[in-house]
Amino acid sequence: MSLRIVVCVKYVPDATGDRHFAEDLTTDRESVDGLLSELDEYAVEQALQISEESDDAEITVLTVGPEDAKDALRKALSMGADKAVHVEDDDLHGTDVLGTSAVLAKAIEKTGYDLVVCGMASTDGTMGVLPAILAERLGVPQVTLLSEVSVTDGKVNGRRDGDTATEQLEASLPALISVTDQSGEARYPSFKGIMAAKKKPVESLDLDDLDIEADEVGLGGAWTKVDDATARPPRTAGTVVKDEGEGGKQLAEYLAGQKFI
Ligand SMILES: Cc1cc2nc3c(=O)[nH]c(=O)nc-3n(C[C@H](O)[C@H](O)[C@H](O)COP(=O)(O)OP(=O)(O)OC[C@H]3O[C@@H](n4cnc5c(N)ncnc54)[C@H](O)[C@@H]3O)c2cc1C
Fold this sequence. Notes:
single chain, Rossmann fold, seven-stranded parallel β-sheet, binds flavin-adenine dinucleotide, ETF_beta_N, electron transfer activity, electron transport, ETF_a/b_N
């Protein structure tokens, strides 16, 4: 039977642009360009490598996000994923990690899966907790923060490099993994891949399709809230310490004055 892989990918504001909060203190996604989160490219890459090692695998990329999030799905499809699912609904605006994980879980169950692959964190929210919550919601083992992954004989194996130890982990499928930015460079889409992606299926789902009530998600259903946000002050000109024999001392005094040391 085919190995069904679902990769969760997030459409995020381009980190090189000028990012803001909107008036309701959610991330302003309207006025900035977005893209497939770089950290999720690693997840797509690992799914592609698992698929290439398998006799019969199918990769679905899944996102919960606004209309433009289709761009992230197209990029993943052009890298080589087979099909995409886009959960989009006006009532999702302001959904926090608990709501997002609930929506993803329903969409994954509807799609069918043996292995769910996530990135280590998104590059906007950077909570890094969604994979763990999602595994709990799906009721499957979670093997997170892997830098090396393989799937054999109905099991997923991986290496997790911690600060003090390296662990070799294994779980029976169905399971969820997350992969780090140390798992291997993500491939660039080829011209052929970009052309092929235009014809690959993208299924759109809304909250009704997933039997989710509007009040379970959105700002109203969120368990977390941004109370306040202050814009970062503009950059000031740096302090230049000229070394005329006393440079080291002056530098130490400057750092001490700033309470860095
Ligand atoms: C108070 C609050 C308000 C928010 N309002 C909005 C909003 O208005 N609009 C909005 O788009 N987001 C909003 N978000 C963020 C959004 O819901 C996040 O996707 C969610 O909180 C996950 O957290 P994270 O991005 O830090 O994920 P992490 O836990 O850092 O992500 C880890 C991995 O989970 C997967 N993942 C995360 N998010 C998604 C996703 N959306 N689709 C598919 N895979 C995903 C990816 O594989 C990613 O690498 C809000 C969050 C909070 C806390």
